[in-house]
Amino acid sequence: MTGLLRVTGLVAGYDRIEALHGVDLSVAEGRAATVIGPNGAGKSTLLRTVAGLSRAWRGTVEFDGTDVTRWPAERRTRAGLVLVPEGRRVFAGLSVEENLRLGGYAARRSASAPGLDAVYDLFPALVARRRQPAGTLSGGEQQMVAIGRGLMSGPKVLLLDEPSLGLAPQAVRLVTDALVELAGRGTTLVLVEQSAAVAFRVAQEGHLMERGELAVSGPVERLRENPAVLRAYLGEPRIGNR
After folding, report:
1. In this model, does residue 155 exceed pLDDT 70?
2. Distance CA 46, CA 12 (A)
3. Mind listing the pLDDT tens digit for each residue in 87-99?
4. Residue 63: is it exposed, middle or buried by C-beta count within 10 angstroms (0-12/13-18/19+)?
5. Where are the domains of the chain?
6. Residue range 3-233 in CATH 3.40.50.300
7. CA dihedral defined by 174, 177, 182, 186, rounded to 10 degrees?
8. pTM for this prediction
C-alpha cells in the first residue's frame, strides 16, 4: 500500500539537541498507526515535525504524494494534515461550539469535513455543554472538544499527541471508544501514546520509539507479544479488547 503519510530519514530536535535520528514511517490511507514509548523518546517531536510545528533538520515529510517538508504548519493543516496537540489547548473563554467552529474555518474547501452534528454524535457528552465556556469543562470533555475541533477541519490524516494524558479512567475510556470508532470508519490516524493499552486498542499498526529511533514496528498483534513491549508497557491494566 502506498503511504498517505511518508516520513523518510527524519532528523529533528531542539536547539542543538538532536531528538530524532533518521526516522522512517509510512501510514497508508484508512489505517490507524500508533507510536508508543517512554517520556523523552521523541514521540511528540515526531508529531510536531510532521505537523510543521518543529523544523526538520534533515529528511522528508511526504503527504498525499507531495513533499511538505518546508511547508508551514497552517498550510499542512489546510491540506488535511491536522494535529490534536498534547494538553488539549482549547480556547478557554469560548464556548464548546465556538471552539468546534474554529476548527471548521480551515475546512471551507473540504467536502470531507464533518458538521457539528457529526461531532456531537461522536461525543454526546458535549451536546449539553455546547454553550458552556470550554475552560470550565473537565479534562476529558476538553479532550473531546480538541479532537472534535480537529475533525471539523476535515483531516485526511489526524495526528493525536497523548490524548489520554492526565485524564480520569472513565474519560480515557470514552475518548478511546471514540478513537476506536473513528479508526473503524477508516479515518487515517497517527496516535502517539504512553499508554500501550489505549494505543493497541485503537491502532492496527504499532511502532516502539526509543531514544529517537523506531526500535520495533509491526502489526499490534505482533507488538503485544514482543518481549521489550511486554516488559516495559503492558504491565498496566487493559482497557478492553479491540
Report:
1. yes
2. 8
3. 878 999 999 999 9
4. buried
5. 3-233
6. yes
7. 170
8. 0.89
